């Protein structure tokens, strides 16, 4: 999932089926927030969107950190920004949606892109899975082929706990899964 994206570019790419998997996860995140990319382009919606992003950030953070145990002092923050002076296309076309990770212990935030690859994958997976789960009006079959390869041992345990609590798994390699299944 990209940490910073031009909303008009995201809309164009979505409408032409040109989204990456990360951008699709970003759209899933916006669904979790309860908004659509088009709403960012309406200046009269700006204050409402700020409130939506501010109100949804703790909810999203709580859900992620219910499973992610690697650093519980993080919070995810979503912001709507203007383009930076001298930004290159497509990030020169506002509004820009930025995701940041705020670390309360260090009292600093970093761009989402600067977080570990494992955390970005886990966060993206959870956002995408939440949308699939919410949209499913019947049982859903989700194929995870070697999920979370960028996760280290403890993070893989977090993923297994998420799968254990929210999915009914099956595997061709029983030794890789806990015996509780």
Separate helix tally: 5
- Given helix and strand content, the structural type is alpha+beta
What is the H/E order? EHHHEEEHH
What is the average of the pLDDT values?
A: 89
What is the CATH-assigned architecture?
Answer: 3-Layer(aba) Sandwich
Question: What distance separates the N and C termini?
Answer: 31 Å
CATH fold topology: Rossmann fold
Description of the structure:
It is a single chain. With 181 residues, the chain is α+β, with helices and mostly antiparallel strands. It has a single domain, classed as Rossmann fold, CATH 3.40.50. It is built from five helices and four strands; from the N terminus they run βαααβββαα. It has helices spanning 7-15, 21-33, 46-67, 117-135, 153-166; strands at residues 4-6, 74-81, 96-103, 108-111. Strands 1, 2, 3 and 4 form a four-stranded antiparallel sheet that branches. The radius of gyration is 17 Å and the shape is globular. The two termini are 31 Å apart. The model has no long low-confidence stretch (mean pLDDT 89).
């Amino acid at each position: 999932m990209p940490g910073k994206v031009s909303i008009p570019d995201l809309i164009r790419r979505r409408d032409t089926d040109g989204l990456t998997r990360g951008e699709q996860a970003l759209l899933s995140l916006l669904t979790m927030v309860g908004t659509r990319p088009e709403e960012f382009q309406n200046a009269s919606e700006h204050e409402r969107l700020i409130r939506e992003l501010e109100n949804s950030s703790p909810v999203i953070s709580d859900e992620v950190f219910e499973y992610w145990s690697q650093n519980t002092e993080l919070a995810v923050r979503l912001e709507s920004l203007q383009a930076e002076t001298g930004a290159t296309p497509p990030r020169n076309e506002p509004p820009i949606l930025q995701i940041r990770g705020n670390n309360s212990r260090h009292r600093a935030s970093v761009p989402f892109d600067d977080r570990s690859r494992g955390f970005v994958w886990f966060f993206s997976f959870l956002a995408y899975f939440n949308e699939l789960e919410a949209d499913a009006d019947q049982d859903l079959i989700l194929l995870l082929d070697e999920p979370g390869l960028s996760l280290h041992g403890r993070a893989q345990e977090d993923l297994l706990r998420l799968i254990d609590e929210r999915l009914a798994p099956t595997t061709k390699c029983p030794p890789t899964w806990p015996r509780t299944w």
